[in-house]
Automatic annotation (TrEMBL):
This is Glucose-6-phosphate 1-dehydrogenase. PROSITE patterns: G6P_DEHYDROGENASE. It comes from the Bacteria. Its EC number is 1.1.1.49. The keyword NADP applies. It is an enzyme of class 1 (oxidoreductase). The keyword Transmembrane helix does not apply. It catalyses: D-glucose 6-phosphate + NADP(+) = 6-phospho-D-glucono-1,5-lactone + NADPH + H(+). Keywords: Carbohydrate metabolism, Glucose metabolism, NADP, Oxidoreductase. Catalyzes the oxidation of glucose 6-phosphate to 6-phosphogluconolactone. The active site is at residue 247.
Length: 510
C-alpha cells in the first residue's frame, strides 16, 4: 500500500453541508484507521465568519454527524483529531486575492511540518469552481515546485455537454489534468469497484459477458427519500443530471468496458471512456420518444403518514417539469454488445433504497425441460451495490422427486460476511485515494464529456418540450405504470425488495 505523504487539505465551502456530513466523518474514519499522514491539517475556507475553535466545534466536537462515532472514544483522542482543523475566513467572496490564504497555508505548513503537498477540495456551488482555481493559480498556489497540488472537484460537473467542456477548459488553464480529481462518490462504493473484480478476476463470468449469452442488462437506482432539503438545487437538476449522467453511467461503463491491460489508473480509465463512447446516442425525436420515460412523484400516504408530492416540496416550482424518475433504454454499438438492450432507471420516493445491476442471461438455446415451470431469461446475476452489498446468482435446480421439475435456487455472497474487513465509506476511500495520488476512481475530463454526450440529447428533447409526457407516480411505488412499456416484450422490471434474496414485487403502499 502507498504511504500517505504529509499534506494539508484545504476545503473551500467548509461551512457547508457536505463538509460536515460527509468529508469530516470520512476523515474521522481514516483517523481511527490510522490512515491519516503523520503530519496533516485541514484548513476550512469559506465566507462565513468563524474562528478555528468555532469551526472545530461545528464540524467535530458538536457535529451531529460525528456524535455516534465519537461517543465511546476518549476525550483526548477526539481533541487530538479536532486540533487538526483550522479555519480561514475568505472575507466575503471566493473571488478575491488569496495572498492571505497563502500566508495561512505557509504558516500551517511550517508549524505542523506538513510539507508543500496540498489538496484543494472544492465543496462550494459549482459556479465557483473555475474562479477558485484561477485565484489559487494567481496566488501561485497551484504550482508543484515545492510539493504536489491536487484539486478535487465535486459534482455536478457541468450542467450540459457545453458547460462541462467549458469547465474542463477553465480548470485546465490553471491546473494540469493529472492534478484534477473529479469526484463521483459511487466509484468509492466497494461493490461498484467489485464489478471489475467480478468480471476480470473470474473465468466463470467473463466468457459469458457478451451478446451471445446476455439477454439484457437492467440497472436500478432507487431512493426511498424525496428531495429532502435540496429542492432548490434538485429542481434545476432532475434525476437525469443528478444521478444518471454521473453515478449510473459510471456503473454502465464498468459493465460495458473491455478488459483493461492492467489495473493502472489510465488503463482502466481508457477502457471506461471507450465504453461510454460506444453508447448509441439517440438522435431523432422518435428514438427519444420510444426509449425514454420521465415522471414526478405525487403525494401519498406511507405508513400512515402523508408524504408530499414533488411539486409541493420546499424550493420546488409548483409547475415544475423536473423529473424525479427517469428510465432509459439504450444500446451499445460495439462488437461485444450489439443488439443487447440496456435498461437503466433512477428515482426518488421509491418503495425502498436499492442500487443493483442485473445481468439477465438468455434461455439455453435448446430447451430440454420444457415443462419445467421455469421461465425464459430466469438465469440472473445480481450485483447489489447497496444497501446489502453482495452478489446473487439465480440458477435452476431439480426439484426432488419424479420427472424434471426445475426450481430457481440462489447462490449468494454478502460483503458483510467478510467480518474481518472494514468496508470503507465511499468518501473515506476517495479521500484516501486523492491523498495518495491514485486517480483510478476519479473521472477524467474525456470520461465526463463522453457521458454528457450521451445524456445531452435526452435533456434537450425533454427540456425543449418536444415530449409532453410527464407521468406521475404515487410516492412509495415503483414509478409510473407507463415505464413498463419501455421493457415490454423483453421482460419486466425487477422491483427488488430491501434484501438481496427477497423476491421482486416489493411495494410499500400497494
Ligand atoms: N451535500 C451533499 O450531500 C452533496 C453535495 N455535493 C456537491 O458539493 C458541493 C457542496 O455541497 P453542499 O455543502 O451541500 O453545499 P452548500 O449549499 O452547503 O454550500 C457549501 C458552502 O458554499 C458556500 N456558498 C453557498 N452558496 C453560495 C453562493 N451562492 N455563493 C458563494 N458561496 C456560497 C457557503 O459557504 P459560505 O457562505 O460560508 O462561503 C456554503 O456553506 C456542491 O457542489 C454540491 O453539488 C455533491 C454530492 C452530495
Ligand atoms: O449524488 C447524489 O447521490 C445521492 C444518493 O447517494 P447514495 O450514496 O445515498 O446512493 C442522492 O440522494 C443525491 O440526490 C445525489 O445528488
Amino acid at each position: 500500500m502507498n504511504k500517505t505523504e504529509n499534506q494539508i487539505l484545504v476545503i473551500f465551502g467548509a461551512s457547508g453541508d457536505l463538509t460536515a456530513r460527509k468529508l469530516v466523518p470520512a476523515l474521522f474514519n481514516l483517523y481511527v484507521a490510522e490512515q491519516l499522514p503523520d503530519n496533516f491539517v485541514v484548513l476550512g475556507a469559506s465566507r462565513s465568519d468563524m474562528t478555528d475553535t468555532q469551526f472545530r466545534n461545528r464540524v467535530v466536537l458538536e457535529s451531529s454527524y460525528l456524535k455516534e462515532k465519537i461517543k465511546d472514544k476518549d476525550e483526548s483522542y477526539i481533541k487530538d483529531f479536532a486540533n487538526k482543523f483550522f479555519y480561514e475566513d475568505l472575507g466575503g467572496s471566493y473571488d478575491t486575492d488569496y495572498s492571505r490564504l497563502r500566508t495561512r497555508v505557509e504558516d500551517l505548513k511550517n508549524k505542523y511540518n506538513t510539507s508543500g503537498n496540498i489538496i484543494y477540495y472544492l465543496s462550494t456551488p459549482p459556479t465557483l469552481y473555475e474562479t477558485i482555481a484561477q485565484r489559487l493559480a494567481d496566488a501561485g498556489m497551484s504550482t508543484q515546485n515545492n510539493g504536489w497540488k491536487r484539486l478535487v472537484v465535486e459534482k455536478p460537473f457541468g450542467y450540459s455537454l457545453d458547460t462541462a467542456i467549458e469547465l474542463n477548459k477553465g480548470l485546465q488553464q490553471f491546473f494540469k489534468e493529472h492534478q484534477i480529481y473529479r469526484i463521483d462518490h459511487y466509484l468509492g462504493k466497494e461493490t461498484v469497484q467489485n464489478l471489475l473484480v467480478t468480471r476480470f478476476a473470474n473465468s466463470i463470468f467473463e466468457p459469458l459477458w457478451n451478446r451471445n449469452y446476455i439477454h439484457h442488462v437492467e440497472i436500478t437506482n432507487a431512493e426511498e427519500v424525496g428531495v429532502e432539503k435540496r429542492g432548490g438545487y434538485y429542481d434545476k437538476s432532475g434525476a437525469l443530471r443528478d444521478m444518471f449522467q454521473n453515478h449510473l453511467l459510471q456503473i454502465v461503463s464498468l459493465v460495458v468496458m473491455e478488459p483493461p491491460i492492467s489495473d493502472a489508473p489510465e488503463d482502466i480509465r481508457d477502457e471506461k471512456v471507450k465504453a461510454l463512447k460506444s453508447l448509441r446516442i439517440m438522435k431523432d425525436d422518435q428514438t427519444l420518444y420510444d426509449n425514454t420515460i420521465r415522471a414526478q412523484y405525487t403525494k401519498s400516504i406511507i405508513d400512515g403518514n402523508e408524504v408530499k408530492g414533488y411539486r409541493e416540496e420546499d424550493g420546488v416550482d409548483e409547475n415544475s417539469t423536473t423529473e424525479t424518475y427517469a428510465a432509459i433504454k439504450f444500446f451499445v454499438d460495439n462488437w461485444r454488445w450489439k443488439d443487447t438492450p440496456f435498461y437503466v432507471r433512477t428515482a426518488k420516493r421509491m418503495p425502498t433504497k436499492v442500487t443493483e445491476v442485473v445481468i439477465h442471461f438468455k434461455t439455453p438455446h435448446h430447451q430440454i425441460f420444457k415443462d419445467s415451470g421455469v421461465h425464459d431469461k430466469d438465469n440472473k446475476l445480481i450485483i447489489r451495490i447497496q444497501p446489502d452489498e453482495g452478489i446473487l446468482v439465480k440458477f435452476g435446480v431439480k426439484v426432488p422427486g419424479q420427472g424434471f421439475k426445475v426450481e430457481r435456487a440462489n447462490l449468494d455472497f454478502y460483503y458483510s460476511n467478510l467480518v474481518e474487513t472494514h468496508v470503507m465509506d465511499a468518501y473515506e476511500r476517495l479521500l484516501l485515494d486523492a491523498m495518495q495520488g491514485d486517480a483510478t476512481l476519479y473521472s477524467r475530463a474525456d470520461e465526463v464529456e463522453a457521458a454528457w454526450e450521451f445524456v445531452d440529447p435526452i435533456l434537450k428533447y425533454w427540456e425543449d418540450g418536444k415530449d409532453v409526457r410527464m407521468y406521475g407516480y404515487a410516492a412509495g411505488v415503483w414509478g409510473p405504470e407507463n415505464a413498463d412499456e419501455l421493457i415490454e416484450g423483453i421482460g419486466e422490471w425487477r422491483n427488488p425488495g430491501p434484501n438481496l434474496t427477497d423476491d421482486p414485487g416489493f411495494c410499500v403502499i400497494c
